[in-house]
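Dear colleagues,

As part of the handover before I leave the project, I'm documenting each prediction I ran so the next person doesn't have to rerun anything. This entry is a single chain, and its sequence is reproduced below.
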Amino acid sequence: MKRIESPESSPSPIVEGSRKTLSPGLRAALVVGLLYLFLVGVKMLEGGVKLLGSDTAGGLFDGITNPVAALFVGILATVLVQSSSVTTATIVGLVAAGQLDIEIAVYMVMGANIGTTVTNTIVSLAHARKSEEFKLAFSAATMHDFFNLIAVIVFLPLEYFTGFLLNTATWLTDLLPVGKDATFNSPIKGAVKWGANLIEGIFESFIENPTTLGITFIVVGIIIIFITLMYITKNMRLLIAARIENSINAALAKSALVGMGVGVLVTISVQSSSITTSILVPLVASGILLLRNAYPITLGANIGTTVTALLAALATGAASGMTIALVHLLFNVFAILVIYPIPKIRYIPVILAEKLARVAANKKWVAIAYVGGMFILIPILGIVILN
């Protein structure tokens, strides 16, 4: 099908002129460079939020006894540190040290799964100037939210009444050896961290106040994300021919396992589901990747992100730590097995995301209210009221 571009999405004169001057190889190198800067921007955004909220996040785990409050703690802690991997690794350490009740930790892990989706949702806001792009970008981001929300709606009451996840994880822990030498350093993660540290170091040299520094990181990160996304989208449209788009989408449409495998491998490589799903946002927004073909990649990212907690559990050498890490893995695997194979419910997260995106495209304040309400206001109120 021939893509019809609206006037607002047509290439700028600069890009139009570069269509003739840049070879495919140079344009591919440009896209890779832009993607790298995009990831640096995401890392700076995460670093800024983490700098502002790390002290608050550390105290959230104390004194929680209500399962739903624990869920909200998992969401809020992950938003504050901008990484479900960090949250779950922290939970693993607290459980292994006997400072956190493992039954309550199960619900915190579920919350971490929801909280991790905030990064790609924020990234999608960079497309807000162009309605059609924004609808696709916001849909690509929020389908992750809706899938994880549905998973919690199914498994939280099941876990509360049966202990299914914890009992299964405990049984598996008894079958596994727990060692203390598990480490994994991602070269991609290291390269992105190096770039972010380089830029952050410039500001750290003349800004001493942590709050001001955190806000600066957030602002600079958002600026980098906005600029790089704009040019990534334009250059990808010029670089990827229609037949290549069709081949990519045909391969992913043929087997969901391929998409899930891609999501798992990429997330393990970068050690962040947020980065994996954030990369999907411009791909879907530019029309290169169909929304429903991006969906399995998102689910694979959910599984890939559990590796960090598993490695943290191995490093603790404690059976309880391994058990809670396995709960995280089992929660994501069983959520896919329950939701995805059934055709009538498989695409409910995608459909809900598309409906929300249509509203948000017409009323941008809805998108802002959604992010603030879902990831900050509701969790805070929930913790205060329920605990």
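The chain has one domain: 25-386. Residues 74 and 112 are 5 Å apart (CA to CA).

All the best with the project,
I.
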